[in-house]
Amino acid sequence: MSAKDGEGEAEAEQVVNPWEVSAKDGGKIDYDKLIDKFGCQRLEKSLIDRVHRLTSRPPHVFLRRGVFFAHRDFNEILDAYERGDKFYLYTGRGPSSEALHLGHLVPFMFTKYLQDAFKVPLVIQLTDDEKCMWKNLSVEESKRLARENAKDIIACGFDVSKTFIFSDFNYVGGYVLLICIFPPPKLASILILSTFYENMVRIDKCVTYNKVVGIFGFTGEDHIGKISFPAVQAAPSFPSSFPHLFSGKNDLRCMIPCAIDQDPYFRMTRDVAPRLGYHKPALIESSFFPALQGETGKMSASDPNSAIYVTDSGKDIKNKVNKYAFSGGQDSVEKHRKYGANLEVDIPIKYLGFFLEDDAELEHIRREYGAGRMLTGEVKKRLIEVLTELVERHRRARAAVTDEMVDAFMAVRPLPNMFS
Ligand code: TYM
């Protein structure tokens, strides 16, 4: 078994890990099986209703439609919130490419909603070190991509007064705190804080080589950077990794929105947390925004024809949807009118389920298309409109993100009003 095969290989079935997502025999990802295998919980309607009640906001479309479908201890986060206890959000991105695809936007759009609804701080990790090691990028190129990706993330609308974005290369080794004992330039003392790194070492000491091989499938051929990386992704789950934000708040809970491919990192983290005196991080996990070709895997940044990017033009979107989006419609109009579309395999319907906000319109399209009264071309046309509007809105927001704004989000600083 190699690091790429991960946990799925043992059953020779579907493979879902941070590096590979593929269904069994070209079928669909079986999310129920994944819940059983990973040992997470299904996100029940009662929890979604509770979010509605506690935040007095309508649940996000990704909650209503079951895009976020699994969790770990989300109920405990809500219990704590109801008691008046606070928590923080943690999510991230591995900057492996210049442009994000629409699948990458899913957790960030959802995290923005969570931040607004619960009024909580957020830390966003850019794992430029991870991509440097896995994608064989140079350190400099990984750092450049991290800053480029930060612009796309900021364009999702995060609140700079509640959000800290950091790149591993810049932050993990510690940061300098300048303490002025007398007004400068008379006497200043320099203190290097590296609690993030201290936590990584604490985590490393709790995880055996056998354990990390069991979770991630590393082999003797993998370099040691890969073996030590999981602690880097685990450390932000503990509040003491951010002393400028959460000093003295070691009891603060952490919640992580992500797609379910990241679960292995946090199974390991949750195992370690109580031994280090922290709460286990809670998770809320989504299914994958699928490739244009079908639900056998996730949209992949390395296959341009499988994905719609936030940089695609209206023309690109139209071409990709018309040419590649797998259709559940019948192969002749006559048959289609008679039998209707197979919505289970239809990618345009799946995509509309993510990004068409209007529940009534989606229901109408599903009914008409499923009964054969609507044709594939009409559904694709509506999808092209929805995606073009989304990508255009993102492009405008990204164009407004300046280098100064990136610096502001990435500055190591206290966030005085982060809980209000
Ligand atoms: P990365 O860059 O592969 O993905 C960034 C985020 O997007 C999610 N994602 C998707 N969601 C829906 N549909 C898809 N097709 C799709 N593809 C990717 C990922 O689950 C992730 O949430 N190692 C991480 C970076 C990271 C991180 C974290 C992610 C560091 N700390 C904490 C989540 C939470 C990575 O390479 O993500």
Features of the shown structure:
two-stranded antiparallel ribbon, 2 domains, disordered N terminus, seven-stranded mixed beta sheet, Rossmann fold, alpha/beta, 19 helices, Tyrosyl-Transfer RNA Synthetase, 420 residues
Kindly report the CATH topology of the largest domain: Rossmann fold
Helix content: 40-55%
Quote the beta fraction: 5-15%
Low-confidence stretches: 1-11
List the helices and strands and how they pair.
Layout: E1 15-17, E2 20-22, H1 31-38, E3 41-42, H2 45-55, H3 61-64, E4 68-72, H4 74-83, E5 87-93, H5 102-118, E6 122-126, H6 128-134, H7 139-154, E7 163-167, H8 168-171, E8 175-180, E9 188-193, H9 195-206, H10 209-216, H11 224-234, H12 243-246, E10 253-259, H13 263-272, E11 282-286, E12 290-291, E13 294-298, H14 314-324, H15 333-339, H16 347-355, H17 359-370, H18 376-399, H19 403-410
Parallel strand pairs: 5-6, 5-10, 6-7, 10-11
Antiparallel strand pairs: 1-2, 3-4, 4-11, 8-9, 12-13
Helix pairs in contact: 2-4, 6-7, 7-19, 9-11, 11-13, 14-18, 16-18
Bound molecules: tryptophanyl-5'AMP.
Tryptophanyl-5'AMP binds at residues 18, 90-94, 103-104, 106-107, 125, 127, 130, 233, 256, 258-259, 261-262, 286, 288-289, 298-299.
